[in-house]
Amino acid sequence: xxxxxxxxTLRRLFAAAVASAMPERLADxxxxxxxxxxxxxxxxxxxxxxxxxxxxxxxxxxSGVVATRYGHAVATExxxxxxxxxxxxxxxxxxxxxxxxxxxxxxxxxxxxICLLSGGGSALLALPAHGVSLEDKQEVSRQLLACGxxxxxxxxxxxxVSAIKGGRLxxxxxxxxxxxxxxxxVVGDDPAVIASGPTAADPSTYADARxxxxxxxxxxPRAVTALLAAEPDETPKPxxxxxxxxxxxxxxxxxxxxxxxxxxxxxxxLNVLQLGDSIEGEAREAAKVHxxxxxxxAAHDSPVARPALILSGGETTVTLRGKGRGGRNSxxxxxxxxxxxxxxxxxxxxxxxxxxxxxxxxxxxxISPDTLxxxxxxxxxxxxxxxxxxGYGFFAALGDLLVTGPTHTxxxxxxxxxxx
Length: 420
Fold this sequence. Notes:
This protein is of the alpha/beta class and 420 residues long. It has two domains: 6-17 and 255-419, MOFRL domain (glycerate kinase, domain 1), CATH 3.40.1480.10; 23-252, Rossmann fold, CATH 3.40.50. Helix content is 37%, strand content 17%. It is built from 15 helices and twelve strands. It has helices spanning 6-19, 47-57, 91-103, 121-124, 134-147, 151-159, 168-173, 206-216, 222-230, 254-267, 283-300, 328-340, 371-377, 382-387, 391-398; strands at residues 38-43, 63-69, 79-84, 112-117, 177-183, 246-252, 271-274, 308-314, 346-352, 364-367, 401-402, 413-419. The strands form two sheets. It has a six-stranded parallel sheet, with helices on both faces. A six-stranded mixed sheet has the order 7-8-12-9-10-11, with helices on both faces. Helix 6 crosses helix 8 (206-216), helix 11 (283-300) packs parallel to helix 12 (328-340) and helix 12 crosses helix 15 (391-398). The longest helix has 18 residues, at 283-300. The protein is globular. Residues 309-413 form the MOFRL domain. Keywords: Oxidoreductase, Pyruvate.
């Protein structure tokens, strides 16, 4: 194994995963320039960096507008970058979506639209459906974020209260050719799910949206309830001829990021066990499963021998019951530390590859065999902090937050457990 200490090794592996998903990779996926205009639109935490990479690689003229999260903008020359709120929408996101619809209006079959999408795009494309206010959409988002719904369920509801998501942006681009370049942050890399699929066919229905409301007992604003009941204009479905002009290309995915980390780990002499890029469910429950696998390796050198690395990706959820601070990665790690209970030789890192865990300023955090002991010495009760959903406060007290700042990409969560 490398001479690096365990936490430095984990940081190095996270850096390798992030580097594999940088927006510059879009240069390998560009369509040929059109006879007419090239208009760029897009949204996501990586959208500004993608716009800059596109400017550097594109041989012809460009114009357009993209939206990114506050603090994630980068300098561009020809593509305008607007900032808006995430994960709860704001008026800036509505204005950005309107600007995009204006930018693609009146195009011809000789024109090309390049749409740049990445995780976070759903909240940044905040334009509500007719009759629904921004405040209504904000309330829907707050309830979805707190109830523990999966991303597919969230998107089924989001798309049906939106004027731009669920394939509606693609319809607005016609008859121009549309090529979407996307960085996937979702399980399965489904174009209909990434950023709520503004340029992809939508298999979900108004009935699906109502089912999500019923399943989680959501109390929606009156205008949203009326819209879901009225079903005024269904989103375009797979096979819809109106989307014949649209093409979708993935430039980075969670699996590619895990593969990059695994390659680096093997180079450092670690035996890698990949659990895949599709881990979902409650963060604290996923932590228990990961802890069980770590205990099996520690006790039996099986299914891989030490020194070993357990890798996984995906997107867990957190059902908010407490009033603490923290995202799904800090919750996962706090639950993992409790489940491992100081097991010797086991270290872990969990972080969001966009550099922001939930709504805090950290990407994630790290744990070591002495995490619980150090917390107890400071009078910090790990179990109580977990009950209060206060992973951020727990790791901040220990000085074990992982703070990277915006990475300008987003291929979902990265989890690595190192056994010496």
